[in-house]
Amino acid sequence: MATTTRQLTDLISIGPAMLRDFELLGIRSVAKLAQQNPRRLYARLGRATGQRQDPCVLDTFCAAVAQARNPRLPAEKCQWCSQLTVNSKRKKTKRDLA
Question: How much is the pTM?
């Protein structure tokens, strides 16, 4: 019985832009992605590009890492927007509002 190694392109919600981001961060396999912390990836990407990243990028990193860690994750939890409530419910501080 042959086993198929999952590719980053097999993950739901991962398109060309995210593949470029993963490449920039040195993430070239699902196994490597599974070892990552989504918040750290988000921070590293911001530093690497010199630009503040959209919060949706963090949501996508969260969904991608969850898929990488659990190949049987239900499809609805693989979508980047499934992570939206997790990250957008963070309490806003005065700094956020300034």
Answer: 0.77
Burial (0-12, 13-18, 19+ Cβ within 10 Å), 73 = middle
Structural domain contains residue 96:
no
Tally the domains of the chain.
Answer: 1
Q: In 10 A of CB 14, how many CB atoms? A: 23
In a domain, 76, yes or no: yes
Nearest to 39 by CA among 53, 51, 50, 49: 53
In the block, tokens 């961060």 appear at 25
- 96 — pLDDT class (breaks 50, 70, 90): very low
| CB 89 within 8 Å of CB 64 | no
Let me know if residue 23 belongs to a domain.
Answer: yes
Q: DSSP class of residue 91?
A: P
| Confidence class for position 29, pLDDT limits 50, 70, 90 | very high
What is the pLDDT averaged over residues 39-44? 96
Q: Which domain holds residue 63?
A: 8-89
